[in-house]
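Predict the 3D structure for this chain.
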Amino acid sequence: MKSNFLYITSCILLIFSACSTDNDTNISDNRNIKSDTHHYRETYEFDYTVYNDFKHEIINTLDIIKENQPAPTVEGFQQSLDIINERHNSDLVLNQLDYDLLNSEHTNWQDFYLDNNYLTEEEIALISEFSDDAVNEGFYIALDNLKTKIISLNLSEEQFSQYNLLVNTLMISNDISNIQTTALGRRPSWWKAAGCGVAIAANAVSTYSLTACVVPNPTSPAACTTAAVGKVLALAGVAFGCF
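Done. Predicted structure below.
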């Protein structure tokens, strides 16, 4: 399943240029990003707390998972989730999406998410447009375009919070890609090599809609939010070899 899925998503994406385009070279990977307000809807503004405050904690958890070399199976991902729950004091469990991704053979990512009702056509269009923009314009321009499109949608507060977490997840993913590319010299970015951008974005949107605690509130602490991001990125590593 892994090779077929990644091959098709790679063909769809062609290559992602998150690390190497001229558009991105003047942006520091370690910048501290402040929240930005858009004009479409004054009540909604993107918040980067997860990226700014918890990025290193999430990356450290992924490093521990990588050291354990989990198999690309349900059992292997359960071991990874156990590490996430222990480190983030959370109690996340495997859901049907996880089982379907790890057990099934699918040759087209769009059909997989549509046929199983994990994503809507609107959500697939957003992800596809983001991937196209990343190829043609670079990661940061693609991300800005994605945020503009999210703001223009008629979203509930809960839906916007889930998309806000997607944006934070993509930013952390890009930082991981930059770290790996720098450390390994001429190795291509994971965006280019495996089509992981689509895999991560599609899984993130689906997972966050299935995980009630991803939006912090008095009964759902921030630890669950960071654990959910770790789960999405860990699945990308276990199932798709992204990290």
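The first helix runs from residue 2 to 13.
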